[in-house]
Write a structure and sequence with these properties.
By secondary structure, the protein is an alpha+beta fold. 23% of the residues lie in helices and 32% in strands.
């Protein structure tokens, strides 16, 4: 592994020294940014992403490639990113739309010492699920501003890194961060996204047949709006997580406990966050993303109080939160309240306790200071996170 790292490092030095279209390197990173110490595997990742950024930077001024990249940079795009697996190994699928980028990228890899069919760098990018990512569409920038600045994820932080942009027939080094991306289109070379174990889990009604079945009270997460980047530019798409805290009752002992559902994941595009932060109404739906995911498949009357937890997933930070939930077996029983507790990793976006009677009384009947979206009262878990909660009652 050590020899392989040395090989990547030497290739990187050759690229830096031998590519005449690049201006001499300058110190572009700010002081004061906290950086993690990288282990050997992460150092290899950083070196490979950086080499890839320099190669791609040399290609993005070519008209045919610029045209292809509009698929991941235009307003209303269905793709925000392009994996190297799709680019290289799927020429008849998604990769077919990027045939010029594919051909030129492989050519440049070969010229710079990456062996033919596919070489170390190309195989590394594919094996490790690296991808190209455009955080903000072209419509965010003044008309006529098209040339991308290309930067690699720095790995040791998510705030800024050196980027490369064409200027006066040569490639110039610049400091790329959120402030830079406010004024200049950026194309980022990204490592594999961190993934969290867990999926959606719903409490399914026990009886959905027969005329005498109890009504089913379904509640959904309708639209969400997050006015926070939850990290630097290289954080990429926000990996929102929503969980529901609820009471459970043991039918034998009557013991009531609090629990949390398995997480509901929502990928929240970064351009939506920028629109929400700036209170834009035209771009990215003003930050309102249509999630339309079930939060509780049956909010039964016995669950008199539940809670909602929202955070943005991050492997680094871990915290524990708790909230009160309530259970009432029937109209003649006392309400029992217990604590629901869970541990999560990420940036906290709030936890709220929702009384069932209050929820249904206000869901379509806002107060004088409540915001309304699509006919539903807007809920908040924090000053930066809002959502709607469409509900319906089903009879079987």
């Amino acid at each position: 592994m050590k020899m392989r790292y040395i090989k990547y490092f030497v290739i990187g030095l050759l690229v830096l020294a031998g590519c005449e279209k690049f201006e001499p390197g300058v110190q572009t990173q700010s002081d004061g940014i906290a950086k993690r110490s990288l282990d050997q595997t992460e150092q290899v990742l950083k070196a490979n992403l950086e080499q890839t950024a320099r190669i791609v930077a040399g290609l993005v001024d070519e008209p045919l490639i610029m045209d292809e990249l509009t698929l991941i940079s235009e307003e209303g795009r269905s793709m925000y990113s392009l994996s190297f697996n799709d680019l290289i190994d799927n020429p008849k699928g998604i990769g077919d739309s990027f045939r010029n980028l594919r051909s030129r990228f492989l050519d440049e890899c070969e010229k710079q010492g990456d062996t033919k069919g596919y070489g170390d760098l190309v195989n590394y990018l594919m094996k490790n699920d690296c991808y190209l990512y455009v955080p903000y569409p072209a419509s965010f920038y003044p008309r006529g501003v098209k040339n991308f600045t290309v930067a690699a994820h720095p790995v040791d932080n998510d705030i800024e890194n050196t980027g490369y942009v064409w200027e006066g027939g040569r490639i110039k080094e610049v400091r790329v961060n959120e402030e830079y991306a406010d004024k200049n289109p950026v194309l980022l070379i990204m490592p594999k996204d961190e993934k969290e174990e867990g999926s959606m889990a719903f409490e399914l009604p026990k009886d959905l047949t027969g005329a005498k079945a109890e009504p089913v009270y379904e509640v959904r997460i309708g639209k969400v709006r997050c006015a926070d980047y939850c990290g630097g530019l290289f954080e990429g798409t926000l990996e929102l997580r929503i969980a529901r805290g609820f009471p459970t009752a043991d039918v034998t002992t009557g013991e009531v406990k609090g629990a949390f559902t398995v997480l509901i994941p929502i990928d929240y595009p970064r351009d939506y966050a920028k629109a929400a932060i700036n209170n834009w109404t035209v771009h990215a739906e003003g930050g309102w993303l249509n999630a339309n995911i079930i939060w509780d498949s049956n909010w039964q009357p016995s669950k008199v109080q539940q809670c909602i937890l929202v955070y943005e997933y991050d492997q680094v930070k871990e915290a524990t939160v708790s909230a009160t939930v309530g259970y009432k077996a029937n109209d003649f029983s006392p309400t029992i309240t217990v604590s629901a507790k869970t541990t999560y990793r990420g940036d906290f976006l709030g936890i709220s306790e929702w009384d069932r009677n209050w929820f249904y009384a206000t869901n379509t009947n806002p107060g004088p200071y409540d915001e309304v979206k699509d006919g539903w009262t807007v809920r908040k878990t924090s000053p930066v996170f809002k959502l709607t909660t469409p509900a319906r009652t089903l009879y079987y």
